[in-house]
Structures are given as structure tokens and as C-alpha cells.
Design the sequence.
């Protein structure tokens, strides 16, 4: 679930402290806050055969370091059990991260529960959740959208992606979505040579021994995306908004791919996620009515009064991936695409040193300042046989500035 629950809790703690800092004149002592160490569970399984993960951690005090890894719940025993008594053990492969065997897939019609025994010997168990198959995603498409900002200058033109799905005959009417996308980045002037300064500050030109022409930039969802089918007779889902991408993200992009996963979840899971989403989007103050702790479907076996944060999700899942050329984007988007390699062409330099190029000594003094600023974004990418040097806009000579080398296995 991409650690949504854990991040939401951290966000709440940070926001709470920030409001205290900016909203109070009188300093409040740390000892005035009580701290309860609670177990946080981030877990889901599906009918997709893959490695499934359970993440266990503990809440941190307001003055604690949220990112030092000390909050991980290590050394626990974690397993999933179905309603027929079949058990699958999860193995800790890094602190607080427990994974299933790679061939594990839950089965439709069965119910599953999560069991945890911590290193301290405390036992926790989730409610049994039935797996309901998810309908297929029938269509993924895009539409030009301008996201409003504080004003016209801050509005963001871009692409809104939607999905359609036909859930007819499905017993679940509640869905959660995940996405991953990939930009293929191919630069027109890949570096054959590069210039770097040595320890004395002198420029040294050397040959580049790797291909920097083609990279891939992969990203994944970082928000809760929920939908419900209100038409119980047809079960159709139409124009479910999945993600927005600014038009500027498609610069230097040759091909684009997005994969969307649709998860059929229970009404209880949907209600839980809705509360999490409202909490995460809240812009209230300390003086607003507090919503309290959001409790999921996991309880302490030893102490029924102990609060446990998080949810064990059991879902049917289907995924669909599409590949697009830039020309496949909604037509109005084309006017807003950032095309740096068309607007910033290469510069050939003869009879100058690299320092003289960056100091723009070949232009008039009146415009030298702006030219120095422009050239600071250029890098050497080739050297001619007679000594001339070729400089290109940095996004157009080195694909690793926008992505990583290595083609994904799913790429055509």
C-alpha cells in the first residue's frame, strides 16, 4: 500500500508540531504531551501471484526522529491464514518489512486473517476478510486539464488520466487504485565526451564509456485513490480520475507508459481509507474538533483496550498497462509540452577554452550576464577531429538527468 498509513501518521505528528511552533507565543514543554507507543500495520494481499509485503512499525514521540529506522518493529513472527486453516509465513528481509513467498496468491471466495507475534511476545490478529475478484479495467485514457493554483501564474497545465471499468456481476462495489508510470527518455545529443574539473580546478576532457542516450524514469502512486460504483445494476465505473501529470513532465520523453491496478475491497476497508484520506487532506487547526485515532481491523489478542493502527486489506486485483507516444496525448496538451531540446540547440565552440565559453567572452558585454546564465545549463558532449567542442543543453546530452539506465522488462 506504499506505506500510506505510516506516512499519514507521520504527517499528522509533523503538522501538529508545526502548528504549535507557528501558532503559539508561549513555549510549550515537551513533557506536557503524553506518548503512547502503538503498533502500526501496513499490509495487503491479493489474488495476484507475487511477493506480498507486511510492514510493521511503532509510532514515534513528537521529539523523535521519524526517519532513523528505530521505529521498525523487528523480529516479529508474521503469517497469514485462510478460513480453511492454510497458513503462509512471511519472512523479514529488512527491518520491519516482512514478505511472502513469490508464488503466493490469495484465492477468490476464501477469507484471510493476518497474525503477528512481536519480539516482545505480544499477539495481534486482524479480522477475516473475504477476497472478492476485481473486474477488468476496460480503458485508460487522458484529457487535457489545468490544475488551479493560487492564481493564473500558478496554475498547472497537464494531463489527467482516467479509467473505465465494468463491474457488472461483481459482489464488490468498492475499489482502491494504484498506478505506476514510466517515461522513456531519449536524448538527441548523447555525451561522447565530458569535461570535469580536477582537484586544481582545471578542466579535463575524457571519453564517456557508457551509453547515455536512453533512460527510463519510473514513479508510483503516493496517495489514496478510491471509487465506488453507485449504479448497482450495471456496476459501471466511468471516468475514475487516477492521476494528474504536469505537461512539463513529458519533456525529452519519447514514449510513455502507465499501469493501473484496480483492487476490489470491502465496504469496511473503503470506510477506513475514506477516514484516512479525509485526515490527510484536512487543513484544520489545533482548535478544530479532533477526529481521534483511526482504528482499522487489527486488534491486540492480549489487551482488547490497546489501540492498533493500520489495516489488513484482502483484495481482488486486476492491472492494465498502456503505452503512448507524445502524439497520443490529448491534443491541447501539445501546446504546453516543454521541449528543451528544440528550443536549446547545441553550440559549437572554436578558438576558445572551456572557461572562456562559460564566461561568454565571445559576446558583447551588455548581454554577457544573461548568456553566462544560459550557458551554465550546457555541458560538453562531443569533440571534433580538428579540436572544436560541442556543448548541449544538459537535459539533451545525458539521459540520467531525467531517468535511470536499463530498459524495464515490460518495455516493448
Sequence:
Amino acid at each position: 500500500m506504499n506505506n500510506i498509513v505510516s506516512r499519514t501518521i507521520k504527517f499528522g505528528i509533523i503538522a501538529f508540531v508545526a502548528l504549535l511552533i507557528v501558532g503559539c507565543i508561549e513555549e510549550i514543554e515537551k513533557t506536557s504531551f503524553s506518548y503512547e507507543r502503538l503498533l502500526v500495520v501496513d499490509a495487503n494481499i491479493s489474488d495476484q501471484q507475487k511477493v506480498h509485503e507486511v510492514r510493521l512499525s511503532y509510532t514515534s514521540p513528537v521529539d523523535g526522529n521519524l526517519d532513523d529506522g528505530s521505529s521498525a518493529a523487528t523480529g516479529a513472527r508474521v503469517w497469514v491464514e485462510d478460513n480453511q486453516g492454510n497458513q503462509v509465513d512471511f519472512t523479514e528481509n529488512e527491518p520491519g518489512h516482512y514478505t511472502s513467498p513469490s508464488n503466493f496468491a490469495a484465492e477468490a471466495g476464501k477469507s484471510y486473517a493476518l497474525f503477528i507475534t512481536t519480539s516482545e511476545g505480544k499477539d495481534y490478529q486482524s479480522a477475516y476478510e473475504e477476497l472478492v475478484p476485481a473486474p477488468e479495467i476496460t480503458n485508460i485514457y487522458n484529457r487535457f486539464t489545468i490544475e488551479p493554483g493560487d492564481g493564473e501564474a500558478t496554475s498547472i497545465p497537464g494531463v489527467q488520466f482516467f479509467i473505465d471499468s465494468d463491474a457488472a456481476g461483481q459482489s464488490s462495489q468498492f475499489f482502491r487504485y494504484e498506478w505506476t508510470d514510466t517515461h522513456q527518455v531519449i536524448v538527441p545529443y548523447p555525451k561522447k565526451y565530458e569535461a570535469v574539473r580536477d582537484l586544481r580546478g582545471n578542466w579535463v576532457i575524457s571519453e564517456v564509456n557508457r551509453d547515455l542516450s536512453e533512460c527510463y524514469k519510473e514513479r508510483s502512486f503516493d496517495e489514496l485513490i478510491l471509487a465506488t460504483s453507485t449504479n448497482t445494476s450495471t456496476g459501471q465505473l466511468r471516468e475514475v480520475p487516477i492521476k494528474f501529470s504536469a505537461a512539463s513532465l513529458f519533456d525529452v520523453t519519447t514514449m510513455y507508459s502507465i499501469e493501473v491496478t484496480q483492487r476490489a475491497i470491502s465496504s469496511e476497508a473503503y470506510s477506513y481509507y475514506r477516514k484516512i484520506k479525509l485526515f490527510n487532506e484536512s487543513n484544520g487547526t489545533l482548535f478544530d474538533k479532533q477526529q481521534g485515532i483511526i482504528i482499522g481491523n487489527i486488534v491486540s489478542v492480549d489487551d482488547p483496550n490497546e489501540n492498533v493502527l493500520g489495516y489488513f486489506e484482502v483484495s481482488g486485483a486486476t492491472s492494465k498497462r498502456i503505452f503512448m507516444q507524445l502524439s497520443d496525448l490529448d491534443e491541447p496538451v501539445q501546446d504546453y509540452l516543454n521541449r528543451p531540446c528544440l528550443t536549446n540547440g547545441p553550440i559549437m565552440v572554436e578558438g576558445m577554452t572551456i572557461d572562456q565559453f562559460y564566461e561568454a567572452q565571445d559576446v558583447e558585454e551588455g548581454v554577457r550576464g544573461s548568456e553566462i546564465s544560459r550557458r551554465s545549463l550546457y555541458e560538453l558532449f562531443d569533440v571534433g577531429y580538428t579540436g572544436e567542442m560541442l556543448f548541449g543543453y544538459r537535459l539533451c546530452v545525458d539521459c540520467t538527468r531525467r531517468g535511470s539506465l536499463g530498459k524495464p522488462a515490460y518495455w516493448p
About this structure: The mean pLDDT is 87. Residues 4-132+267-315 form one domain.
